[in-house]
Amino acid sequence: MAASTTTVASSGSARTVLLVLFLAACFHAAVPKAAGGDSSDLVAGHCANATRDFCHMHLTSKYCVSTLRSHTRSARAQTPRELALVAIDLARRGAAAADAKAAGALERKISEEDARSLRYCRSDYVAVARLAAMCRGLVEAYSPGDGMRMYYNVECATKLVHAATNCGHLARFVGAESEAALRKEFIDVARRTALVKAMVELMIGVEDPIEGFEDDFDYDA
Q1: What is this structure's pTM?
Q2: 221 within a domain of the structure (yes/no)
Q3: For residues 87 and 20, what is the distance between their CA atoms, to the nearest angstrom?
Q4: Domain count, the chain
Q5: Measured by CB atoms within 10 angstroms of the end CB, which terminus of the chain is less buried, N or C?
Q6: What angle do CA 56, 204, 207 make, to 5 degrees?
Q7: Per-residue pLDDT tens for 116-155?
Q8: Which first-to-last residue range defines the signal peptide (predicted)?
Q9: DSSP class of residue 28?
Q10: Residue 13: which CATH number?
Q11: Has residue 196 been placed in a domain?
């Protein structure tokens, strides 16, 4: 019994140490730039802060601003939390559109290999939708200073990025015609989930220096 108790205590201590190391690794104060009270300036200021770090090398402030402003709710957003929720909804919409495009491609006469890759992509987009709902709940429940929820928010956003980019990697193995028809959607979902991660990290004031984004995924193709 004593050995069991010691094991549990050690496990809890190790988890605490890992959390502290995670928070210390790439911490910055998420202080927005002066915005002058205009909502569009607030979006631009938050995007500038969210994309300024090396951890977000695949995002630009211009993309961040244009994507968030495509959702009418961004005009009323005042905080990174509100913009993170907007980004999550945009990612979910993008995944639904990409899934519909993949489903349409499966109705055409394509190779068995293409069909298999597209079915995997569809399962990835289902995962994006499910994770988006989970991430939304975590963002809504987050309270500044809550160490474990800081970790859970970043973990959820990271899983969201991985689910989206899985399909982008699979696209390299489908036929040229199928890839050309669907690549726009692959890239769009990957970028939208990357934006979610950037806004979540801005909300909690922590950059994730380890995960980053998929360095070998060609976002600019």
Answers
A1: 0.75
A2: no
A3: 28
A4: 1
A5: N
A6: 30
A7: 888 888 999 999 999 999 999 999 999 887 777 888 999 9
A8: 1-29
A9: -
A10: 1.20.140.40
A11: yes
